[in-house]
């Protein structure tokens, strides 16, 4: 009986299996041949350059060709043009090439980024969907229209100086008179930037932007503030609270003395001391106060026992940062002022071993057709050629390591030639639009240079190079003002930086970038600041000790 049941079950399973295999529901579906309707070709103004186009005119002709003819009714909603904010931009469209090519003609704004997207919902005449979407980026060019009336070159230089001067005069901190770090810094003032600001005030008097009496009063206000502000063996912190004079930490362990910032401050103060040479009690007191502040900086203490100056000292972290001040960079002025000190001077050995590194700061290689005496490859950011030379005249200046006129002109020309060559193919770089240095960038800050090129141009780079590249700097100035003025010319002069790749224009102004513009334009025009600082007896003595030779000493 059991065996019978077993066989019955086997037969039942077999029958059931045969019926299941014959079930139409399990028959494989028919094979569907995919559409071959796809993107074929793209041209913007009759040129194919991938899917990103820079320097596009405001009325481009965009042609997108497909493998089969388009259903005209599906264009609307499936071909979309938007600007950088996502706002839809209208355009005219038509078909050509047997309806295989869509011709798109928009009216665009200058210096704007656009995205054109063709979705898979674009149908062909058979009703088939596009295999994959198409997207391209368009960045429009600078408008050639002048944004302001043309004036003479001399009038333009004066205008730029006067507008930039407002950063230090109108926007100076109300309590301390010091320069704020940037236009959003509130009570945070900057030591080095205030040194630049003092030089700017001397320039402002010279150019009749303010009276001598008003300038004297502002500089004395700054000096009175500095007499009570925090000092660390005579050196000031990078940032200071403009109300209280208390040090503000620049970074985690940088909450004490900053010798480089102090040297930039002292260079400005000594320049003002030489300018205010009158016999009045007010000018005499200012000169005496400035001399006292300078003489109280313990330059040699910042050696930290070595034959090199050290950048920082913290009352909390002592020498933990241990950043040696070594050339070539912006800190030549630090060694000059340290050697020139009547009270805490360093020796020439510290200059030779610490700064010059016994000659290893030399370069001698050629970049973009120009030989560079000192420093890093391709020169580095241009502020290296500016900060120390706001008051030190490089013309005819030599020592054992370089001719500094040659050095700074070479550095500026390498920067210029790099931007003209534009190996990174950044939008907008040209003989009229150049200059890489430390500045704000989108969502950050960096020291731009030919070896660190983020596509960001900083006006201070070219404009503070006027003494080195007058023709190239004037071309840049005219471009910045006349062609980009609607974007970058603001209340305190030119904004800090801009990028024409994905058009971005900073809203910021920084003291350390605005200052060199007004100062170096003045040195280009009259040598005012150079003549003043180089006339200081301490500077003459100190540079002589270091072996400098110059017709201006």
Written description of the protein model:
This is Glycoamylase-like domain-containing protein. Keywords: Signal. The chain is an alpha+beta fold. It folds into 2 domains: 39-140, Sandwich (Immunoglobulin-like), CATH 2.60.40.1220; 153-545, Glycosyltransferase. It contains 15 helices and 22 strands. It has helices at 2-21, 153-169, 191-206, 212-228, 259-275, 281-295, 332-340, 348-355, 404-421, 459-463, 470-483, 485-488, 511-526, 528-534, 537-545; strands at 39-44, 52-56, 62-66, 79-83, 91-96, 101-106, 113-118, 134-140, 188-190, 239-241, 247-248, 257-258, 312-313, 366-367, 370-371, 438-441, 444-447, 456-457, 489-490, 493-494, 498-499, 504-505. The strands form 8 sheets. Strands 1-3-6-5 form a 4-stranded antiparallel β-sheet, with no helix packed on it. Strands 2-8-7-4 form a 4-stranded mixed β-sheet, with no helix packed on it. Helix 2 packs across helix 3 (191-206).
């Amino acid at each position: 009986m059991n065996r019978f049941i077993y066989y019955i079950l086997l037969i039942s399973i077999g029958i059931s299996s045969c019926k299941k295999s014959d079930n139409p529901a399990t028959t494989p579906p028919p094979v569907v041949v995919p559409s071959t309707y796809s993107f074929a070709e793209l041209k913007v103004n009759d040129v194919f350059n991938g899917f990103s186009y820079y320097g596009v005119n405001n009325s481009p002709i965009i042609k997108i060709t497909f493998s089969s003819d388009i259903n005209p009714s599906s264009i609307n909603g499936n071909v979309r043009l938007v600007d950088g904010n996502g706002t839809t931009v209208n355009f005219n469209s038509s078909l050509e090439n047997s309806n295989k090519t869509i011709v798109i003609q928009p009216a665009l704004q200058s210096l704007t980024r656009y995205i054109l997207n063709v979705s898979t919902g674009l149908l062909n005449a058979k009703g088939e969907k596009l295999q994959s979407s198409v997207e391209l980026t368009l960045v429009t060019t600078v408008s050639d229209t002048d944004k302001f009336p043309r004036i003479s070159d001399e009038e333009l230089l004066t205008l730029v100086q006067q507008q930039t001067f407002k950063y230090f005069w109108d926007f100076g901190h109300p309590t301390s008179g010091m320069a704020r770090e940037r236009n959003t810094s509130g009570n945070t003032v900057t030591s080095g930037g205030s040194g630049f600001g003092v030089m700017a005030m001397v320039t402002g008097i010279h150019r009749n932007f303010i009276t001598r009496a008003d300038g004297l009063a502002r500089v004395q206000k700054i000096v009175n503030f500095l007499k009570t502000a925090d000092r660390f063996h005579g050196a000031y912190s990078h940032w200071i609270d403009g109300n209280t004079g208390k040090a503000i930490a620049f970074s985690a362990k940088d909450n004490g003395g900053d010798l480089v910032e102090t040297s930039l401050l002292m260079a400005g103060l000594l320049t003002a001391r030489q300018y205010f040479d009158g016999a009045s009690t007010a000018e005499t007191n200012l000169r005496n106060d400035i001399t006292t502040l300078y003489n109280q900086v313990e330059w040699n203490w910042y050696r930290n026992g070595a034959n090199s100056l050290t950048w920082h000292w913290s009352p909390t972290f002592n020498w933990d940062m241990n950043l040696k001040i070594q050339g070539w960079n912006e800190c030549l002025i630090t060694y000059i002022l340290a050697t020139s000190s009547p009270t805490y001077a360093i020796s020439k050995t510290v200059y030779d071993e610490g700064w010059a590194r016994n000659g290893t700061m030399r370069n001698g290689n050629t970049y973009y057709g120009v030989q560079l005496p000192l420093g890093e490859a391709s020169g580095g950011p241009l502020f290296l050629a500016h900060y120390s030379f706001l008051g030190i005249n490089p013309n005819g200046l030599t020592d054992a390591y370089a001719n500094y006129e040659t050095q700074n002109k070479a550095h500026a020309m390498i920067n210029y030639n790099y931007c003209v060559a534009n190996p990174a193919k950044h939008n907008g770089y040209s003989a009229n639009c150049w200059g890489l240095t430390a500045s704000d960038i989108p969502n950050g800050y960096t020291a731009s240079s030919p070896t660190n090129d983020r596509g960001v141009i900083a006006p201070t780079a070219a404009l503070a190079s006027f003494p080195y590249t007058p023709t190239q700097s004037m071309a840049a100035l005219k471009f910045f003002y006349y062609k980009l003025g609607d974007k970058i010319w603001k209340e305190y002069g030119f904004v800090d930086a801009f990028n024409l790749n994905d058009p971005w224009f900073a809203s910021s102004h920084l003291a350390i970038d605005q200052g060199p513009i007004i100062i170096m334009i003045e040195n280009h025009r009259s040598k005012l600041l150079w003549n003043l600082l180089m006339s200081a007896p301490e500077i003459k003595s100190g540079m002589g000790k270091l072996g400098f030779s110059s017709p201006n000493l």
